[in-house]
């Protein structure tokens, strides 16, 4: 049996799966936590990656490996390849003002959507570079290369052999704000506009390109493990879930994302849709919220319960929570672009001031933000698939169809980002035109009646944030 490994270095943790390259059968897995916070030294990702690989039984019998990771994070390297400062993550909103400046300086939202596929908000790497230039000019000056979490981890796995060895892929490059998904080229002018000079950026590999081999000095028992290009976590999830034309995926992880595959690039000047590329040579229009699974974590903490009890409580609460509405902008928000917003609770009365109503309002509020994302995406889904840690919640599964007003499908709980990375590694071995087809179980279907007035009440409450 030929084995491949897939890695998901996401916001909260690192997960590793080892799968049979031919059938996709899961052989073993491991995970390790990441530190909290919106700026993290990349060494923590490396430590967690090594721990998760060890927990997954090592790489000795693995033929190829691929890294999927959280998108957008700014990793600045000096000319010797040393990390200059903690990476600013996708959910760090300090560059919100820098984003506004850049949008204005380059001619407005349509100009950005045309040039880079997306209108940059604080999440995008390009805005973090502008923040660096303004607030830490010495660090900006020393920045000889800039790369993303998956680029850096792949480079480290290959032995960090000089800045010229840095690689990336179309999917992750499309989240920088200085790479054009439609042209397939970097925009050095945008990079310079943000940072003041043009640092080295990773070479963009073809979807079945090879990033190198795992360094045998780091993993002495793992001789010549081939490294696939890797990609951003959402692009990896698309591969992992086997995204088909017409499908829409809702991923409830630290971020909430709503995405579909497309044969054409998107250029949304409203800024709601990020016009990403995918990991197969196509495109991945995506709407992202900053507040997803951790809204459930926070609501559970307020109520002094765990996420399982929160789910039970939410299912005891009446649909619509008798008018109690939670706007869950706990980390500010990205879509809509309200980086300074805070969360709020509306419609509180004596009659709905119960833990069950509060739990229900938290689940419904989080889902309303994602349902707005589906509306913004403008796709009528043939299948609406829910994945990510938050989709493990029974309340989320059962309440989602009543918020989205359509049936919801939930594939068997799993690590779809790591699975997608593993599938990319198997693709590298196969060298075929399309990724290998792996079997998958039937998703579970959930249906529920829409709740009258729920979305409208949420829209009204969210408008005040
Ligand atoms: N059964 C569950 N119910 C609700 N939330 C859950 C459940 N299982 C995991 N989660 C939440 O999912 C989140 C992690 O999801 P994950 O998709 O791994 O995130 P990320 O990839 O962003 O690190 C955590 O906030 C965790 O609390
Ligand atoms: O910023 C985005 C997408 O544009 C996020 O989806 C990040 O890629 C983080 O993902 P998770 O850690 O939530 O999976």
List the helices and strands and how they pair.
Elements: E1 3-9, E2 13-20, E3 26-33, E4 39-40, H1 42-55, E5 62-69, E6 75-77, E7 87-88, H2 96-105, H3 109-116, H4 125-135, H5 137-142, E8 145-147, H6 149-157, E9 167-169, H7 170-173, E10 179-180, E11 185-186, H8 188-195, E12 203-205, E13 212-213, E14 226-227, E15 231-232, H9 233-241, E16 247-252, E17 256-259, E18 274-277, E19 283-289, H10 293-303, H11 307-316, E20 325-327, E21 344-346, H12 355-377, E22 383-387, H13 394-404, E23 408-410, H14 416-430, E24 444-446, H15 454-462
Parallel strand pairs: 1-5, 5-14, 5-15, 9-12, 16-22
Antiparallel strand pairs: 1-2, 2-3, 4-7, 6-8, 10-11, 13-14, 16-17, 17-19, 18-19, 20-21, 23-24
The structure holds adenosine-5'-diphosphate and 5-O-phosphono-D-xylulose.
Principal-axis shape: globular
Separation of the first and last Cα atoms:
55 Å
Ligand species: adenosine-5'-diphosphate, 5-O-phosphono-D-xylulose
Amount of beta strand: 15-25%
Radius of gyration: 21 Å
Identify low-pLDDT runs. none
Count of strand segments: 24
What is the tally of helical segments? 15
- Major sheet characteristics: 7 strands, mixed
Q: Structural class, judged by helices and strands?
A: alpha+beta
Chain-averaged pLDDT: 97
User: Helix proportion of residues, in percent?
Assistant: 25-40%
Family: Belongs to the FGGY kinase family.
Site (Important for activity): 8
Function: Catalyzes the phosphorylation of D-xylulose to D-xylulose 5-phosphate.
GO molecular function: D-xylulokinase activity
């Amino acid at each position: 049996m030929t084995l491949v490994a897939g890695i998901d270095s996401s916001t909260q943790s690192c997960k590793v799966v080892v799968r049979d390259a031919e059938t996709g059968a899961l052989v073993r897995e491991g995970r390790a936590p990441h530190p909290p916070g919106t700026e993290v030294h990349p060494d923590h990702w490396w430590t967690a990656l090594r721990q998760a690989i060890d927990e997954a039984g090592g790489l000795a019998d693995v033929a190829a490996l691929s890294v999927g990771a959280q998108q957008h994070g700014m990793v600045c390297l000096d000319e010797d390849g040393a990390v200059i400062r903690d990476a600013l993550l996708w959910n760090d909103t300090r560059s919100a003002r820098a984003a506004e400046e850049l949008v204005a300086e380059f001619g407005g939202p349509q100009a950005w959507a045309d040039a880079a596929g997306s209108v940059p908000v604080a999440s995008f790497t390009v805005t973090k570079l502008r923040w660096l230039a303004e607030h830490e000019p010495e660090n900006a000056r020393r920045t000889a290369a800039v790369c993303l979490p998956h680029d850096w981890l792949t480079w480290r796995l290959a032995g960090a052999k000089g800045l010229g060895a840095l690689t990336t892929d179309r999917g992750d490059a499309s989240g920088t704000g200085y790479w054009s998904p439609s042209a397939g080229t970097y925009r050095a002018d945008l990079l310079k506009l943000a940072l003041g000079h043009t640092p080295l950026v990773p070479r963009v590999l073809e979807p079945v390109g090879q990033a190198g081999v795992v360094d045998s000095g780091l993993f002495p028992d793992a001789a010549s493990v081939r490294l696939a290009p890797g990609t951003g976590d959402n692009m990896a999830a698309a591969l992992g879930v086997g995204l088909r034309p017409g499908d829409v995926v809702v991923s409830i992880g630290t971020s909430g994302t709503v995405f579909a595959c497309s044969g054409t690039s998107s250029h949304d000047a409203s800024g709601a849709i990020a016009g990403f590329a995918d990991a197969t040579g196509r495109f991945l229009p995506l709407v992202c919220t900053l507040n997803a699974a951790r809204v459930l974590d926070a609501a559970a903490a307020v109520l002094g319960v765990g996420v399982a009890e929160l789910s039970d409580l939410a299912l005891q609460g009446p649909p619509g929570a008798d008018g109690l509405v939670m706007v869950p902008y706990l980390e500010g928000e990205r879509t809509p672009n309200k980086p300074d917003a805070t969360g709020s609770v509306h419609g509180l009365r004596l009659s709905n001031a119960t833990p069950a109503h509060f739990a229900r309002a938290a689940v419904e509020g989080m889902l309303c933000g994602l349902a707005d994302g589906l509306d913004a995406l403008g796709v009528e889904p043939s299948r609406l698939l829910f994945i990510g840690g938050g989709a493990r919640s029974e309340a989320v599964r059962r309440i989602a169809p009543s918020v989205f007003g359509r049936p919801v499908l939930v594939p068997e709980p799993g690590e779809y980002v790591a699975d997608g990375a593993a599938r990319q590694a198997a693709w590298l071995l196969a060298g075929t035109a399309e990724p290998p087809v792996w079997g998958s179980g039937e998703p579970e279907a959930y249906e529920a009646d829409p709740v009258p007035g729920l979305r409208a009440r949420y829209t009204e409450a969210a408008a005040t944030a």
